[in-house]
Write a structure and sequence with these properties.
- The chain is α+β, with helices and mostly antiparallel strands and 153 residues long.
- It has one domain (2-151): 3-Layer(aba) Sandwich (Aminopeptidase), CATH 3.40.630.
- The protein contains five helices and seven strands; from the N terminus they run βααβββαβαββα.
- A seven-stranded mixed β-sheet has the order 1-2-3-4-5-7-6, sandwiched between helices.
- The radius of gyration is 15 Å and the shape is globular.
Length: 153
């Protein structure tokens, strides 16, 4: 598994994974916009094939995990956990003290992973995610980080 910076040319492959992984996922436009900001956008490759991606924002001592997706056929192999570890390390190295995220209430696998990795539920966003039948809640989670600049003191 290789993690590398996401490029504009990666967007079609990433969008294809997004469409297969979620009924109501991000659009190509949203993915392109992430590259235009200061977000940290990484691809996950196996044998040069993109099989996933992770996107975080970091500002004012906080990090937000915006998207962590592994292609359905590569899920349940520990790759998402490895990408999460990498993104937490990036946030810590850049001085973030907390990481936040939202997960669909129905995404029990992701919620279990985040709980196992030290995240705690801190709230609910009612009706946050669209579904075919309306909307579902987002589980808001957070985890304390240990920024590199605090470890030096």
């Amino acid at each position: 598994m290789v993690l590398s910076s996401m490029l504009e040319t990666d967007i079609p492959a990433i969008f294809e994974i997004e469409e297969r992984a979620y009924e109501h996922g991000w659009t190509e436009g949203i993915l392109r916009d992430c590259l235009k900001t200061s977000y940290r956008c990484r691809t996950v490759r196996i044998d040069k094939q993109i099989i996933g991606y992770g996107i975080i924002s970091i500002a004012a001592g906080e990090s937000h995990l915006l998207n962590l997706t592994i292609a359905p056929e590569f899920q349940r192999r520990g790759l998402g956990r490895r990408v999460l570890h990498f993104l937490v390390d990036v946030a810590e190295k850049e001085g973030a003290e907390m990481m936040f995220l939202e997960a669909r209430d129905s995404n029990r696998g992701a919620i279990a992973l985040y709980l196992d990795e030290g995240f705690n539920q801190i709230g609910i966003r009612n009706g946050y995610y669209p579904t075919d039948d309306g909307h579902e809640d987002a589980i808001i989670m957070a985890r304390t980080l240990f920024p590199a600049n605090n470890l030096e003191n």
